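> agent: user asked for a holo structure of the chain below bound to pyridoxal-5'-phosphate. Plan: (1) validate sequence alphabet, (2) canonicalize SMILES, (3) run complex prediction with ligand conditioning, (4) return tokens. Step 1... ok. Step 2... ok. Step 3 dispatched.
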Amino acid sequence: MIRKTRSNISQNEQLLFEMSSPGKRGYQLPELDVPAVDAAGALGGENVRDEVTDFPEVSEVETIRHFSRLSTWNYGIDLGMFPLGSCTMKYNPRINEAVARIDGLAWAHPYQPESLSQGVMEIVAVLEGALCEIFGMDAVTLQPAAGAHGEFTGIMMVRSYFEAQGNARKVVLVPDSAHGTNPATAAMAGYQIRNIQSNSQGMVDVGALEASIDDSVAALMITNPNTVGVFEENIAQICAVMHSKGGQVYMDGANMNALVGIARPGDFGVDVMHSNLHKTFSTPHGGGGPGAGAVGVRSHLEPFLPAPRLRKNAEGAWSWDYDRPQSIGPVKAFYGNFGVIVRALAYILAHGGVGLKNATVDALLNANYIRKILEPYYEIAYPAPSMHECVFSDSRQAAKGVKTGDIAKRLIDYGFHPYTVSFPMIVHGALMIEPTETEPKHEIDLFCDALISISQEIDENPELVLKAPHLSRTPRVDEVLAARKPVVRWKKP
Ligand SMILES: *Cc1c(COP(=O)(O)O)cnc(C)c1O
């Protein structure tokens, strides 16, 4: 069987500080041919910095090689799959990048007058319209910079909606299968959290929900598909139950690549939702880069959207409308992460309706293909059908002393980034796998072969797995020490 890795041959590398030798330069400037300025006199002595001591001094070629070598240590989506569940790490088509780099878009500045910004405003408007259609919602804001930020925006709107009626209410219901950011968001917005238990199918128990609702409940925050990768089959009934008590339904649609083109949250009763443009709508993410948590609302929440809003004036030109008395106010400087917005629109328009739906179908097919292949070896967490990800538990392997975290480490030896380990928390010892629609069958087959092979290793030689990884450049690290006492700064020895 082909394995993707062998013992690593990437080169060892010193820190730039260690390579430094005094007087080396990475640049050459011509002799000064104008009178020298007395910096301290011109700027004021307190504004002039002394020479920085201990700053690395290296040549150009050393600098270039240093960073090029470090870059070969990275694992990235352009190198192989990221099977992380609840994360949608998919390949990002290069056409999106080409479009985002068009000069007029890359150099647009938020302080440009509106008359010179009509094109970029049109892009925002067209994307808002496309997302309204995909979500089945009446209005969309692109301001929030991340999924969790979108949740916060949405729940603040729910709060303002109830305050406008004279009672903000106190409680937000959160199922135990929700993403961890959901209860965090509700708490940040000043709500008490009431937990709803899942049933044996991994879905919200409608009876438990009904029993938890009273007139202090402002909203239910539901992740759908939920974090066990299961579609909430009773979602229409769940929304109806919430509405009958005057509550709102917030849907976390971060990973909407299980629904796009097939089901629309607005159609099954959701009042407010977000989706991560940097997951479902294919802009690069990870490493803390820019994102966008687009939030969609039904018309009754529209007055509360973050200001400003786009408006077309009598002459047919776009302008920003700041006169929004019920708005929760801006949630970000300017109008959102524009580069992400451009990439998402490029992705949507390049695919078109049929293409988007096909992407969804492929995401479901890939996850279910993995589920079927691995089911004989690993315990599936819930019998309900999987959507875009599948969740196993390590119960069979744990009986032999090997846990999900060990299996993930061993996967590195086969050349794969680990899946999501020990999440969601309602599954003991979870292995959460999301291949996404962009993985070719060949890559998925190698991934499944690796996990099957590891399950056999656990039978024959569990030590091999318990001590993994063996082929990576760094062996198994002490994770507790790394978290508790991280060494993140070089100090001169
Ligand atoms: C990723 C994710 C979030 C959080 O999104 P961020 O952009 O990381 O803030 C929220 N909910 C779900 C279901 C997610 O998968």
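> agent: step 4 complete. Summary for user: The pocket of pyridoxal-5'-phosphate is lined by residues 86, 146-148, 179, 181, 223, 252, 254-255, 276, 291, 293 (CB under 6 Å). The CA atoms of residues 259 and 360 lie 6 Å apart.
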